[in-house]
What does this fold into?
Amino acid sequence: MLLGGKGKNLWITPPFFVDYGSNIYFGNNCEVNMNCTFLDDNIIRIGDNALIAPNVQIYTAFHPTNAFDRFGEPKEDGSFEFCKTRTAPVTIGDHVWIGGGAIILPGVTIGHNVMIGAGSVVTGDIPDNTIAYGNPCRVRRENRSDTLQKEDRESCLQE
Ligand SMILES: CC(C)(COP(=O)(O)OP(=O)(O)OC[C@H]1O[C@@H](n2cnc3c(N)ncnc32)[C@H](O)[C@@H]1OP(=O)(O)O)[C@@H](O)C(=O)NCCC(=O)NCCS
It folds into this structure.
C-alpha cells in the first residue's frame, strides 16, 4: 500500500482498511494490529513508537448533521447530490498506545506518551503524559513510568 510516509520499522497486521493510504504518515517503530480502519480524507500523522491495537478507527471525515444540509434539495427525479463532506486532520504524538476498539474523531490531537483505553471515543484533544479512556474519552490520570526515573524518562521521550 502507498502511504504518505513512514519511518523505520512499521508493522501492520492485515486487514487494514483506508480511504487513500497516501494521507497517512507514520514515524519510526510503529505497530498497527489487525482490522484497523483509517479514513484518511485528511492527514493522519502518527509519531514514533506507536502501538495501535486491533479494531481502532481513525476518522478525518464528517458531514452536516441535518439531512437537508447534508444533501441539499432533491433533484427533479427525486435523487440527491452526494452528501457534503468536510475533513479535519488527526495527529498522534510519540510513544502512544491506542487500546482496542478506540474511535478517534476528526480534528483530534493526541499528545506524547498517552494511553487511550480500549473502547474509548476520543472527541477532543488529549494532552501529553496522560491515560485517558471512556466515552467520551477523558483524562483519568497522569501516565507515570513504573520503571524509569524521571530524568531517564525525559531523555527517553526526547530521543
Ligand atoms: C486504560 C487501561 C490501561 C486502564 O487499566 P488500569 O489502569 O489497570 O485500570 P483499572 O482496570 O484499574 O480500572 C480503573 C477504573 O477505570 C475503568 N476503566 C478502565 N479501563 C477502561 C476503559 N477502557 N473504558 C472505560 N473504563 C475503563 C475501570 O472499570 C475502573 O473503574 P472503577 O474504578 O469504577 O471500577 C485499560 O483498561 C485498557 O483499556 N487497556 C487496553 C487493552 C487493550 O486494548 N489491549 C489490546 C492489545 S494492544
About this structure: Residues 44 and 90 are 5 Å apart (CA to CA). The mean pLDDT is 93.
